[in-house]
Amino acid sequence: MIRLFRWLSRRSLGFLHTLGAGVGWLGYVLSPTYRRRFRDHIAQAGIPAPAARAAIAEAGRMIAELPFLWLRPESTPLSGFVQIEGGEFVEAAHAQGRGLLLLTPHLGCFEICAQAYAEHFASQYGPITVLYRPARQLWLREVIEGSRARPGLATAPASLAGVRQMIRALRRGETVGLLPDQVPPEGMGEWAPFFGRSAYTMTLAARLAQQTGALPLLIWGERLRGGRGYTVRISPMPEPLPADASAQAESAAIVNRAMESLIRQCPQQYLWGYHRYKAPRAGAAD
User: Cβ of 232: how many Cβ atoms within 10 Å?
Assistant: First the structure.
């Protein structure tokens, strides 16, 4: 499998995205569960089927581009195929001496966001620390960990030690990246509306901002057609988070509405098959 990954990593983005489109449609056709969840979720969000249909191919492109992104040599800069819009919000936050909390849903190419921040901003403002959960397969875990061991990019495991690592980074005025629409373990979230339906939502993002004074911003990576690369878009939160750390249900609802605002900008690149409304798994609430 690692040989296939390395072979794919040397192919062009255009080739990988063409291959991925076929993979996306194959998965949609072969999996009734995925197909039903996809349709249920776009209906729940009020997205017309024609507007979301392209997301079937985009889900496959998201998978197919991973070898290129994970195994890309450090000597190959992103500047040739990544543009950043909204960089002034990053600069303004750091000019105030505040840490920065970047939030992105399962939209577009979220893998590119941390790499783009590291290459564009880390030399001036320090590294970005991203939360991750190690893969179960040993070979895949080694590939992922190697891909994220890049200059300006640090990783924090999804554990209490990882949370402490992120808090220290924010208090140093650095940047942390999260996917707040992931379903957290039981005891680490709140039930809050997401497209009008109650979804178990992590409270970590709000807690980090409230405990450290970090500024939350929204970020996502739009995948451009024809293998032309990506546009990383950065914007402010539509609503401020409450300063009161006990208002976790309200904070979760605000974060969900922020994620909805991004998804509505580009519903054709959201991962509608993600099991967003599932019950949380049992886990320590520490």
Answer: 26
pLDDT, tens only, 272-284: 999 999 999 875 5
Q: In the structure encoding, which two tokens stand for residue 158, read together?
A: 């999804």
d(CA 228, CA 256): 30
Q: Which residue, among 136, 160, 130, 144, has the nearest Cα to 283 in the 3D structure?
A: 160
Q: What's the farthest any 2 CA atoms get from each other in the chain?
A: 51
Q: Tell me the per-residue pLDDT of 89-113, one tens digit each, with 9 for 90 and over.
A: 999 999 998 999 999 999 999 999 9
DSSP 167-195: HHHHHTT-EEEE-TTSPPPTTSEEEEEET
Q: Look at residues 224, 204, 245 and name the one whose alpha carbon lies nearest to residue 103.
A: 204
Backbone angles phi, psi at 231, to 5 degrees: -120, 115
